[in-house]
């Protein structure tokens, strides 16, 4: 899970930002309601499984169960944060930068720039989370019987303790992105190539996800079906990420970019700018000044939708309210040119360029393009001059080339 949505807490934990996803803010009151309404069931579980007796007669009246439910939900998610902090601290020991810890409706995740590359390191980072949760759980369950003076406190401590143990056990399921799945892949990578280890572990993840989903469906536990869907898709994404890493290994932006791209100046008329579509099938061009310094980026789509002084709008060809072109006919193109303000220039549609250094890694470029809005990066040298253009097409071409060069299996 990525992105920058949600609420960022006004403090950091061990220097790590914590963000609450909007889905977490929706699920928190639901958790509080479920916990508060299930206090007698939890008390029975404590008695039969742990030998801890809780008198619920005084904590199921008025607002008390809902206060306890909210406290239990907050305690659970606080435990998730500590679980993720365990991952983050160990990842730092391997030199990995931790961007943030994010809470969402399925729990939490510590977001790293990348997983540590050392052999077996992923297993070490992954196993720390369940160890932390086990430690919290067993500590609280040992503490709970000594709190006999307060049924509410026994219930709260017991609930957070037992859910931490459950959290640790659930995370040990050998399915990516669960901690157990990452431990499995890391251990497999000790004897197999990384790509093969990922393939085996993601295959196991898919099987586990299907089994979990079927169990959740027939036992009418909807959250297990949702979790199974998440695990299945996360496994597929992990496999795709491994394929990309293999294809782009050792490659830099300079290896993949289109060199010496066509550039335009800010004083070029938009009518002339649109004519470039006849010569170059690009969706936009870097804009430079007379000295060759990069000023920004100009998109063809922005030029086509620039209203004319006569009041023409951006609805596109007549009869199509969605702005689609009909086959790129000359009549449509002439209509678009006629609608362009004759005095408008590229400067009128100039927007900030998304740049990258030609020595940057291909994987870094892939991430930047995915996070950007233009779908392409202007490549610059150490002096800031434009030396190339890198688009999704360039990356797909390299990925396809890598697949074509791979081993062929007989049909």
Give a written overview of the molecule.
- The chain has a four-stranded mixed sheet with strand order 1-2-3-4.
- The protein is elongated and about 80 Å long.
- It contains 14 helices and ten strands.
- A hairpin with a 5-residue loop joins strand 6 and strand 7.
- It folds into two domains: 7-248, no CATH class; 254-403, Roll (CBS-domain), CATH 3.10.580.
- The protein has helices at residues 22-37, 39-50, 64-93, 121-143, 151-171, 179-188, 194-218, 222-248, 253-256, 270-275, 300-304, 330-339, 362-371, 392-404, and strands at 7-13, 16-20, 98-104, 107-112, 258-259, 284-288, 294-299, 355-357, 376-380, 386-391.
- The chain has 411 residues and is an alpha+beta fold.
